Amino acid sequence: MAATNDDHWRAITVWQGGLLDRLPQEIDHGIIACAVDGDGYAILMHNVSQALLPEDNPLAEADNAFVLEAMAAFHAAYWRDNSLNDPTLNLCTPEDFFTHTAPQKIRPLAETNPSPVVEIILEGRQLIPQHLDADVAGLVLSLANDPSPLCDALAAFPHTLVHGDWRLANFGVSQSQKRQLVLLDWARPVQTVPAVELAYYLVTSSHVLPDSHEQTIELYKQNLASQLDGQFRESWWQPQLELSLLGAFATMACFKVWGLVHHWEDKAARKRDQEALRWWSEQARIGARWLA
Questions:
Q1: Confidence at residue 272, expressed as pLDDT on a 0 to 100 scale
Q2: Within 13 Å and on the Cβ side, how many CA atoms surround 248?
Q3: pLDDT per residue over 172-201, tens digit each?
């Protein structure tokens, strides 16, 4: 909340404003009721623990395919929706989303809310110049501090509602009545382009995905094109995808580099991390051509 300037309980306002009532049938948020009490709040939820997927286990092909199908259905449900402009929803801004790991936001948290994640972000940011090529390091560090060129470029393309933290730790697959994606943690919903969600999923979960980055992107693309029913256009798809991949790496490169350094003794993990950094570095260079 602190890193995204959330001072109005965003996880509650999207529920209270009825935004979650419009989720497609493929997704279940699990929320029963919410309460605000002074400076605190509470969310009462169904017990969905049995549906949650193991965070570090490889994802089955069928589950990954369903996750991408649900993602596309979610984005189609809020496609070009002007109600997302309602300020009472308190949506996270793209600028706050892309800077939630920026040093200027994380350093104060190291004093007030110290945690292992905060330490990883700060150490990872310091390691970036040592482990990325100079052009890529300069690009991701610059955008992490000032994402306005990225946000301005993304503003030219069709928007939807993005969950903002679409990763394995935040969802499960329920089979109780009908197959649904249980989607948790609504602290960072953003009005932006759909590929921001896809890129974040890739950068946080690629180590457990059954398919390559390219195959995952293509599968989501096919689902989105089908869901949009004639509104899909290649003319906006590719640039917003390339910009989103750049944005994801700018935000999460600190974790990728930290993992490379701390997996030094695990040769398989280190090789995987090196290959990932090469792929993401190339995507960053490609995406940079679209910057405003």
A1: 85
A2: 32
A3: 998 777 899 999 999 999 999 999 999 999
Mean pLDDT (whole number) for 161-171: 95
Q: How many helices and strands in the chain, by DSSP H and E?
A: 11, 7
d(CA 162, CA 76): 11
> 123 burial class (0-12, 13-18, 19+ CB within 10 angstroms)?
middle
84 CA to centre of own chain: 18
Count other Cβ atoms within 10 Å, centred on residue 171.
26
pLDDT in tens, 16-45: 999 999 999 999 999 999 998 888 889 999
Pairing mode, if any, of strands 27-28 and 180-183?
parallel
Collapsing DSSP to helix, strand or coil, 57 comes out as coil
| CA 21 vs CA 27, 91, 194: distances in Å | 11, 16, 20
Q: Give the whole-angstrom CA distance, residue 92 versus residue 165.
A: 12
Q: Looking at this protein, which amino acid is placed at residue 284?
A: A
Question: Hey, is 127 helix, strand or coil?
Answer: helix
CB 148 within 8 A of CB 35: no
CB 140 within 8 A of CB 132: yes
User: How many Å is the maximal CA-CA distance in the chain?
Assistant: 52
